[in-house]
Write a structure and sequence with these properties.
The structure holds 3 protein chains of 3 kinds.
Chain A: H1 11-17, H2 22-35, H3 43-52, E1 56-62, H4 68-74, H5 81-88, E2 89-94, H6 102-115, E3 120-125, E4 128-129, E5 138-139, E6 142-143, H7 144-153, E7 155-161, H8 162-167, E8 180-181, E9 192-195, H9 202-215, H10 228-231, H11 242-247, H12 257-261, H13 328-353, H14 355-373
Parallel strand pairs in A: 1-2, 1-3, 3-7, 7-9
Antiparallel strand pairs in A: 4-8, 5-6
Helix pairs in contact in A: 2-3, 4-9
Chain B: E1 4-7, E2 17-24, E3 27-35, H1 41-44, H2 53-58, H3 67-80, H4 86-112, H5 127-137, H6 145-160, H7 181-201, H8 203-209, H9 236-265, E4 282-284, E5 287-289, E6 299-301, E7 304-306, E8 325-328, E9 334-335, E10 352-353, E11 376-379, H10 388-397, H11 401-414, H12 424-454, E12 474-483, E13 486-495, E14 498-505, H13 507-512, H14 523-528, H15 540-548, H16 553-557
Helix pairs in contact in B: 4-7, 4-9, 4-12, 5-6, 5-7, 7-9, 9-12, 10-11, 10-12, 11-12, 12-15
Chain C: E1 8-12, H1 16-40, H2 56-84, H3 99-113, H4 132-157, H5 163-166, H6 171-175, H7 178-210, H8 214-220, E2 222-226, H9 234-247
Antiparallel strand pairs in C: 1-2
Helix pairs in contact in C: 1-2, 2-4, 4-7
Classes of the chains: A alpha/beta, B alpha+beta, C mainly alpha.
Bound molecules: protoporphyrin IX containing FE (2 copies), NI-FE oxidized active center, iron/sulfur cluster (2 copies), FE3-S4 cluster and magnesium ion.
One protoporphyrin IX containing FE (HEM) binds near residues 36, 71 and 192 of chain C.
Chain lengths: ~375, ~550, ~250
């Protein structure tokens, strides 16, 4: 059985066929509207979109990755990932879940890309190694660089899931042994929606796919190409420990009394104040928790280059290329101390070398003083 | 290379695995296993704060998320002589157990099942007969004819839409597919249910580690403090949540996973004689301490080695002895300073990537030269298989009653001899039976945690040695654990408060590696020899054996 | 001992706005640096009071941000005064683009910093306003100010609904993330401290060596200049000195 689209079936037709009722459909559309933060009046628009479109084809490429992004994706609670991939989109290629392997898999991908040229969404997970002509990631004998160029060509838009495909990720951390780069270093002529996070929150991932599937427009992006609705705020700005921060109540050691009270983790190196993500609002795994809530300082996993902003348990990173304790403060103190010592030495030198001039001045002072007395 | 077939990408696994196999008279006669992706994790963590390393190496794999993090913090704790509080040990066990159950279930339904289950045959199934079948094997509540009829309709409409998505081009109607339509329907229904369930059990991680995939960890214990009277820590609500998730997991595994496994296996008993490795050595590092990690006697998963299929004796393993575990690179795209044929113990290990394979795009690898980014680990020069099968055998041979009980139960149910365990079928069955034990242990450890708290012990971390100022100038350690795919160990050398050398030897590295200097095959290659292939263009049989190991190549290469 | 004695005359150098600017700067900088370091590494004052009763760290940050806006306004005013104020306040003083300016820098470096002998004793080498080196150092410091203001406003942008900080939204992505921006902000705080130390030292030093009322000048506005240079009025002195400054020195003592 080959992958052939018999006729253009709309999303509405497809879910009605699958035994959903009209009522359920309206409920879903309403839910989507609320989740995307739209006004209630947009429900009609969403319903119309769903009623008139066939399931959006999605090609999901896997490169230098840990597959944590795929794993996060399948944890989605709303929508359920089964509903998403069976009812809302057509996931025509993904290493992780597809039945076919080897040439059968590659043929399925080629067929979908050809048939849906200009219409499919390309999802990319993982970074792309560029060193040594890209030999550090090959699939079916072809390099990742080669493959991404081909699959980007007919894509309507690209979604880069995770810090790897958005920013380079862990393999691009110093010394970046394989010369890994994110997608936007290779593909320049397509809209790219960056969804950073290591991995990103599952519901954020599926919501973005749905946004495109329903509206066929990109979600509103910020200046760095991230969907504003999920990356507009710092973790810190929605952290429920924030009152402790403002009150200056900090944890200074793990498992301490302060830690047990849930004080702020700022002094344990928390990157919440410098990290844009929706951990504090959307939360993880259907809102159950997020690292800070469970007692762990945020490591800033959705920030560009966060891996090299280590050590994680300190607020300030080390000065690059120096030893572990060479923080800006240490060096600052040394420079300041040196300057102070310099000034002291200078004072002494002045008194020695400019003795004559100083003496003259003093002398004249005395003479003048005497003159006044006269 | 007329009779050489290539499967690349191998899908429904983690990572980039390529199998090249030569087929003669309908059987595999030669097999080569290669991974074609490398990142250089061991290099990347060099020079970093050892307390941070868990986060980096955790990103080795998001499928077996947690396992590298645990191996890493254990390695650092070993090097620095940190003993973690009992509650932290239990919490880590709960994370390991929750994860192993989730990973095994996802492997069975979403990664492995489509080798055995024909999705399109669902259309021929009778929902009423399926319901009867379901009720005869389990008391799981979703078993009415109406339920199965809904699932069938859903699949029908899906197939009729013409957009087959992840099922496009699958091995449907293949000669090797043997299930009656009703079993196919049952399996597909549970494919969907399992997908929903797996996102629940990981919430144990979300509560104890803040998120999943990639929960957070801490050298010295756990950072999630216990405070039953405050929302700031693990309080009654949080603990109850964990307990509930573990109870539901117990139910799902006993009422869905294990019955399905046995039902499907009973149609594929011939696979009890296919796909065993030919060297019959099995290694387990052991894990799930009931006391602490320094006391292997207290492990739920016992430690030890079985040699040459001798199911009467367990040999000891010592991860610190430089002549026991060594890694070879004679067929790998790496260099050692002392040449290609030497084996190195991980404390002296090196990671110098040196690609010498064909220039892409290429059709075949040159298997006479180096052909993989995996190194080849050996124990005293011998290849080892690791994984659920090794663990179940180790427990069985050690004579632990609960192991004997589940294994004998399954053997009896399927009416196969013990030797059937050393096969593709045995590997897949071991994973399910192990899940059954894990589900029990999860509840046991949970009760222990509650008892500890009741007795007033709320410690979760030991922080005296958290500050680098308290560390010796030089230290080395090894951290090991049992990951879903087998024994995992990380070796660290710390110098001047920094990571001076870091080496990981990963389950899939043992199983999927290329040949060693003696020409001995590792488990994947060895297991494939003799596998019958009905249609070389659609070699689903190779997928069955390879998938029975639950490959993870991002892990294996790192 | 053959020693000359000179008559000094008062010269009005630092107008009131400059003095107000200076001391506003000093005060706001003191607040910014102290609160800044507290923000960077807050002391743990873990009282047992409830968090909602206490806001001290929030207050520290509030002081930092308030002082920051005072500093910004102050700097903007000084830029205006660089065009509107007297010759000593003029923007030209701060950029050593003339031969004379560069020579003056070398002179100050040689005589004041490296303590070599001043052989020629050219009168014009002693500046009435800033010496060129000092002026140039203020230019560099102005650059520091700009960097602190930009990084500070960049960090502040997301907390604010006011258009001014919001305009600096571009800073964070440009510099590679919040953590980098904070880092820069932090490092420049140290550079400021070093500058201030040297600046205060040199001011005291000049006061000590030249005895022209340098320190009090920033309070009163007056410095003392040798009487030979005064013909009729202070106005003329200023004019002449200015000419010397722009055109190079022709007249010797
Ligand atoms: C030139 C004088 C200034 C100095 C010496 C100074 C110093 C500092 C220091 C040391 C920090 C802590 C940085 C860290 O986290 O390590 C800080 C934080 C900060 N400063 Fe300044 N700063 C100055 C001006 C400004 C200005 C003009 C603004 C503009 C609004 C500003 C806004 C901020 C903000 C928003 C933070 C981060 C506070 C937080 O997120 O909690 N600063 N400053
Ligand atoms: C936070 C510390 C300080 C900062 C940031 C600072 C900054 C400045 C700046 C920007 C100027 C140039 C003024 C202009 O042309 O508008 C200046 C000049 C001056 N400052 Fe400060 N100042 C500081 C502390 C002090 C202190 C403590 C004193 C007195 C002991 C002092 C004495 C002077 C004097 C005498 C001048 C004129 C120097 C000259 O003739 O070139 N300053 N200072
Ligand atoms: N092999 C492997 Fe892993 C596991 N289990 C880890 O150590 O899969 Ni991603
Ligand atoms: S972004 Fe993180 S979770 Fe996603 S693939 Fe990369 S390392 Fe894995
Ligand atoms: S815990 Fe982290 S994110 Fe939360 S308030 Fe403190 S610093 Fe901000
Ligand atoms: S580490 Fe990542 S998951 Fe959220 S709290 Fe921090 S961004
Ligand atoms: Mg290794």
């Amino acid at each position: 059985m080959k992958n052939s689209v018999k006729k253009e079936e709309t999303y509405y037709e497809s879910i009605i066929k699958q035994g959903y009722t009209r009522r359920e459909f309206i409920k879903f559309a309403t839910y989507m509207t609320a989740f995307m933060g739209l006004k209630f009046s947009a429900v009609g628009q969403i319903m119309e979109a769903l009623e008139t479109k066939k399931r959006i084809p999605v090609i999901w490429e896997h490169f230098q990755e840990c597959t944590g992004c795929s794993e996060s994706f399948i944890r989605s609670d709303h929508p359920l990932v089964a509903d998403l991939i069976f009812d809302h989109i057509s996931l025509d290629y993904t290493d992780t879940l597809m039945a076919a392997a080897g040439h059968n898999a590659e043929e399925a991908k080629q067929a979908s890309m050809k048939e849906n040229y200009g219409k499919y969404i390309l999802v990319v997970e993982g970074a792309i190694p560029t060193k040594n002509n890209g030999v550090y990631c090959t699939i079916a004998g072809r390099t990742a660089v080669d493959i991404i160029k081909e699959s980007a060509e007919g894509a309507a838009a690209i979604i880069t899931f995770g810090s790897c495909s958005s920013y380079g990720g862990v393999q691009a951390a110093s010394p970046n042994p394989t010369g890994s780069v994110p997608v936007d270093k290779i593909i320049k002529n397509k809209p790219i929606i960056k969804v950073p996070g290591c991995p990103p929150i599952s519901e954020v991932m599926t919501a973005i796919v749905l946004h495109y599937a329903t509206f066929e427009t990109l979600p509103e992006l910020d200046s760095q190409g991230r969907p504003k609705q999920f990356y507009g705020k710092r973790v810190h700005d929605s952290c429920y420990r924030r009152p402790y921060f403002d009150a200056g109540l900090f944890v200074e050691s793990f498992d301490s009394e302060e830690a047990k009270k849930g004080y702020c983790l700022y002094k344990m190196g928390c990157r919440g104040p410098v990290t844009y993500n929706s951990c504090g609002t959307t939360g993880w795994n259907n809102g159950v928790s997020f690292p800070v809530k469970s007692g762990y300082p945020c490591i800033g996993c959705s920030e560009n280059n966060f891996w090299d902003n280590s050590p994680f348990y300190k607020r300030l990173e080390n000065i690059p290329g120096t030893s572990i304790e060479a923080t800006a403060d240490k060096i600052g103190k040394i420079i300041l101390g040196t300057a102070a010592a310099g000034a002291a030495a200078h004072t002494i030198a002045t008194n020695v070398l400019k003795k004559k001039e100083l003496k003259e001045n003093e002398c004249m002072g005395e003479i003048n003083e005497n003159r006044i007395k006269e | 290379m007329a009779n050489r077939i290539v499967i690349d990408p191998i899908t429904r696994i983690e990572g980039h695995l390529r199998i090249e196999a030569e087929i003669k008279d309908g059987k595999v006669v030669k097999a080569y296993s290669s991974s074609t992706m490398v990142r250089g994790m061991e290099k990347i963590v060099e020079g970093r704060d050892p307390r941070d390393v868990w986060a980096f190496v955790q990103r080795t794999c998001g499928v077996c998320t947690t396992v590298h993090a645990i191996a890493s913090i254990r390695a650092v704790e070993d090097a620095l002589g940190i003993v973690i509080p009992p509650n932290a040990e239990i919490a880590r066990n709960l994370l390991t157990i929750a994860h192993a159950m989730q990973d095994h279930v996802v492997h069975f339904y979403h990664l492995h099942a489509l080798d055995w289950v024909d999705v399109t045959a669902v259309l021929k199934a009778d929902p009423k007969a399926t319901s009867e079948l379901a009720q005869s094997i389990s008391k799981w509540h979703n078993s009415s004819p109406g339920y199965f009829s809904d699932v069938k309709n859903r699949i029908k409409k899906f197939v009729e839409s013409g957009q087959l998505g992840i099922f496009a081009n699958g091995y449907w109607g293949h000669a090797a597919m043997k299930l009656p339509p009703e079993v196919n329907l049952l399996a597909v229904a549970h494919y969907l249910e399992a997908l929903e369930w797996q996102k629940e059990i990981v919430k144990v991680h979300t509560i104890l580690g803040g998120k999943n995939p990639h929960p957070h960890f801490l050298v010295g214990g756990m950072a999630s403090p216990i405070n039953i009277d405050d929302a700031g820590g693990l309080n009654t609500e949080r603990l109850a949540y964990v307990g509930d998730l573990l109870k539901n997991a117990h139910k799902f595994i006993n009422e869905v996973y294990v019955p399905d496994l046995l039902a499907i296996a009973s149609f594929y008993k011939d696979w009890g004689a296919i796909g065993g490795n030919k060297f019959n050595n099995y290694l387990s590092f052991g894990d799930l301490p009931t006391d602490n990690i320094r006391n292997p006697e207290s492990f739920k998963w016992p430690q030890g080695i079985i040699l040459n299929g001798d199911l009467t004796k367990i040999h000891p393993v010592d991860l610190t002895k430089t002549d026991e575990i060594q890694e070879f690179i004679n067929k790998s795209w790496y260099n050692y300073t002392e040449g290609k044929n030497k084996g190195l113990h991980p404390w002296e290990g090196e990671t110098n990537i040196n690609y010498t394979g064909p220039e892409p795009p290429y059709e075949y690898l040159d298997v006479n030269k180096e052909y993989s980014f995996l190194k080849t680990p050996r124990w005293q020069g011998k290849p080892m298989e690791v994984g659920p099968l090794s663990r179940m055998l180790t427990g069985y041979v050690s004579g632990i009653p609960e192991y004997k009980e589940v294994i004998d139960f399954a053997l009896k149910k399927l009416d196969v001899p013990v030797s059937a365990l050393l096969s593709t079928l045995g590997r897949t069955a071991a994973r399910g039976l192990e899940s059954k034990l894990l589900a029990d242990w999860g509840l046991e450890f949970y009760d222990k945690l509650i008892t500890n708290i009741k007795n007033g012990d709320t410690r979760m971390a030991s922080t005296e040695k958290f500050s680098p100022n308290t560390w010796p100038k030089e230290a080395k350690g090894v951290g090991y654990m049992e990951a879903p795919r087998g024994g995992l160990a990380h070796w660290i050398v710390i110098k001047d408060q920094k990571t001076a050398n870091y080496q990981m030897v990963v389950p899939t590295t043992w199983n999927a590696s290329p040949r060693d200097p003696k020409g001995q095959m590792s488990a994947y290659e060895s297991a494939l020899i003799g596998t019958p292939i009905a249609d070389p263009k659609n070699p689903v049989e190779i997928l069955r054996t390879i998938h029975s190991f639950d490959p993870c190549l991002a892990c294996a290469v790192h | 001992m053959k020693a000359n004695t000179y008559n000094y005359k008062r010269v009005y150098v630092w107008e009131l706005p400059v003095r107000i600017f200076h001391w506003t700067t000093v005060i706001s900088m003191a607040v910014l640096i102290t609160t800044g370091f507290v923000i960077a590494d807050p002391p743990a004052i873990n009282s047992s009071s409830e968090a909602f009763n206490s806001y001290w760290f929030g207050t520290v940050r509030l002081f930092h941000f308030s002082a920051a806006f005072i500093l910004i306004a102050n700097l903007l005013f000084r830029i205006y005064w660089a065009f509107a104020g007297n010759r000593f306040a003029n923007w030209r003083n701060f950029i050593p683009y003339t031969k004379k300016g560069i020579q003056n820098i070398l002179y100050v470096l040689k005589v004041d910093i490296f303590l070599q002998k001043d052989k020629k004793h050219k009168l014009s080498d002693i500046s009435i306003g800033h010496n060129y080196l000092a002026a140039f150092s203020y230019t560099i410091m102005t650059l520091f100010f700009v960097i602190q203001v930009i990084t500070g406003l960049g960090l502040y942008a997301d907390n604010s609904s006011w258009w001014l900080p919001k305009m600096f939204h571009f800073v964070v992505p440009l510099l590679g993330g919040d953590i980098k921006v904070r880092y820069i902000h932090h490092i420049f705080t140290w550079l400021f401290l070093v500058f201030i130390l040297i600046h205060v030292y040199l001011v005291l030093y000049h006061d000590y060596v030249e005895a022209r009322g340098e320190v009090s000048a920033m309070v009163s506005g007056f410095k003392f200049v040798r009487a030979e240079r005064i013909k009729e009025t202070e106005e003329e002195i200023i004019e002449k000195t200015e000419k010397q400054m722009w055109n190079g020195d022709t007249e010797d003592e």
